Amino acid sequence: MTLIPGDGTGPEIAEATRRVLEATGVAFEWDVQEAGADVMDRHGGNPLPEPVIESIRRNGTAIKGPITTPVGSGFRSVNVGLRKSLDMYAQVRPCKLYAGVRTRYADTTVDLVIVRENTEDLYAGIEFERGSDGALQIAAAIERAAGVQLREDSGISIKPISETGTRRVVQFAFDYARRTGRRKVTSVHKANIMKHTDGLWLEVSRQVAAENTDVEFEDRIVDNMCMQLVQKPELYDVLVLPNLYGDIVSDLGAGLVGGLGVAPGANFGTDAAVFEPTHGSAPKYAGQNRVNPIAMMLSGVMMLHHLEEAAAADRLEGAIAAVVEEGRSVTYDMKPSPDDPTAVGTSHVADAIIEKLGGA
Fold this sequence. Notes:
There is one protein chain. The chain has helices at about 10-25, 50-60, 80-85, 135-145, 165-180, 200-210, 220-230, 245-255, 295-305, 310-325, 345-355; strands at about 1-5, 30, 60-65, 90-95, 110-115, 125-130, 155, 185-190, 215-220, 240, 265-270, 275. Among the domains are: about 1-70 and about 270-360, 3-Layer(aba) Sandwich (Isopropylmalate Dehydrogenase); about 125-160, no CATH class. Strands 2-1-3-12-11-4-5-10-8-9 form a ten-stranded mixed β-sheet, with helices on both faces. By secondary structure, the protein is of the alpha/beta class. Helix 5 crosses helix 6 (about 200-210) and helix 10 (about 310-325) packs across helix 11. The protein contains eleven helices and twelve strands.
């Protein structure tokens, strides 16, 4: 099993997660691999060394801590690099509200899953800097083909959505719904405006739905979907979205259930799966034993289900839920006030969960 601690606060929450996973009684043999900003100097400026990719290919499954992605400059993203290298085309982000979590939706049942296409759309990274030869050539081609004149100082991003990419992720969403006993898949799009990209997404979604009639299907325009989730999240079950919308709506979903501190995630391909929390690495808190490890622990629950260790997964989720509901052994962000003196550290959360599991 590949374990990537990550950087910033990643190693702390990864260690806490490793401990609770081992406390379930499942036997793990860890293949620890380094990636991220902290290891770049040792790997020629590469935050994603090839041994990391090789390890995941060899083991088929990995769990990783958060890794820093610079804003506006620097390397693009280790997470994007992993998804592309391993063709992990489907990201799964459950948004489940646990008793004891502070949220505006405490009296509402929120238990939905967001499936995000991971390899196409604007996040495919096909970009041209303003004023570059590529941008000028693309602008000229757009004017010839569509009769639309772009400003000369435009940066350009290209949004590819393919029939093949759409079909496989929508089918994944139906298979996931069926496997986990969920009732409905909602395909999210902006086909009313982007006829040939989101329009294709919607067309293929409907075709796949017609082949999976045992699961209910509907579609929603993305802006309306955001409003619907805020107003009545209990009506939704599995959402499947193109890459950009999936990224945005999954954070909205995390907001419904208390924030990124309780938001697990996973990326799936044909031959590999990587499980990870969806929050950042919070480097300013590194080494302080302060950050919330729950999201990575819940990602570990997802990993146990993937490994067909359902009993261990259920026990671990139950232990996490019990600790969260009691509200004693939780980090500052899960207290009524962030300066609550009873807040505990990262490692202490792990201790409490292990105690619930009956382990040491």
